[in-house]
Specification:
heterodimer, A: alpha+beta, Lipocalin, eight-stranded antiparallel barrel, 2 helices, B: mainly beta, Porin, twelve-stranded antiparallel β-barrel, 4 helices, 12 strands, globular
Chain lengths: ~170, ~280
Amino acid sequence: MERLITSFFFLFLCVNLNAQQYLSLDGVITFFSEAPLENISAENKKVSAVYDSQSNEIAFQLQIEDFIFPKPLMQEHFNENYLESDIFPKSLFVGKVIQHKNGKAFVVGDLSMHGKTNRIKVEGSLKQEDDKVIISSEFIVKLEDYNIEIPTIVMYKIAEEIEVKVNIELIEVK
Amino acid sequence: MKKTILLSIFLCSFSVKAQENLLNLLGNDNEPMYISYLFKGTKVVNGQSVELPSKGVLQFTIQHRFGTLNSGFYNLYGLDNSQVRLGFDYGIKDYLSVGIGRSSAIKKIDMNSKFRIKRQIKEGFPFTIVMNSAIYIKQWQSADAQLEAFLLTNQLSFTNQLLVARKINRDLTIQFSPTMVHYNLVEKSVETHDKYSVGVGGRYKITKRLSLNSEYFYQLTDKKNNNALSFGFDIETGGHVFQLHLSNSSAMIAPEFITKTNGNWLDGDIYFGFNISRVFTITK
């Protein structure tokens, strides 16, 4: 009997180790850029995200093609000319929460898209509620850092900096 | 007991490993990756391409065809003779669109619908297949309608075509278009009403915003005239697509340029033309 209990104890220990992770497959990332003629915005509702509250590691992943624009032509140009989603279909962020106090968090990590990876530091909020973790953040991405060319002869000029918003609710992995 | 400890150690090490590799949890979604943007425009040059206006998008196209380049300086090499087709295309669904247009010189109104049957998938189905069906009505005047021989049905002709395209790489797309043109009224009683042809076309992207297009329609049956050969450039500037082209046909609708092309490239019967299209997003 004693053996059995110890066995179970050991087995549960393992299960517990695994129960510190939070996952989401329908996170939302939007971006916005103010341009003289037309503002550019898009929304991706299929962001997958994972957070490990023990190791403080955090990762996001999205498909470039899942960004939905109000205008289909913008979406075409975004995929075809700017992000070249046929060659670089994914964007990925892998980082670590380095500071977490009163719901505020600092995250440092590598953001890759369009074939380039840059280390960024982002401020946001990270709130833990029961079996959920809610993450939100706003930061600026410079197109130049990711080799995204801004053509000179287009009707709508595109801003060199893009405002990115992250809003994700992660649920504990059981 | 030993076995259990070993097992739990094994399981623990496994879960630690899983933690290290958070990315595995994100998963690789197995959704098929569709190949998009085979052509810049809904037309290759004169003929339809496998592209449709997106859902909720209204596309307004102004097409111009001038006279032949060999018509001399007196006609400013064809620029004095121009004909126009105005057209609207609307995307009802992402896979279904309807269009209406009118060609000036031949006074025909055309209506068409395009239905996308299949899409090319990366490492999957190799082609994008679209069905295009069109009806053409020749306009008449009231005096014509009073003639005893006048029949409304005689003013109609039809085109049905299957557009089969493959994006071979990010620059090159090739399209085959088996086509059937039907005339309710033909010029001679011995002529067949159904005329079969096959179109071969493609585009090659020279830069991100400029592509070279070409198209050839080969008449398989009942060939009375020349086959249409056309070359064009698609230039994309934000909201517009400009298409500049040269063809031995001046017509802008399928029955005319497939079966009634008189021009010969070698004789210099080359028509310069351009299309401008602008899209308006009507609904989201």
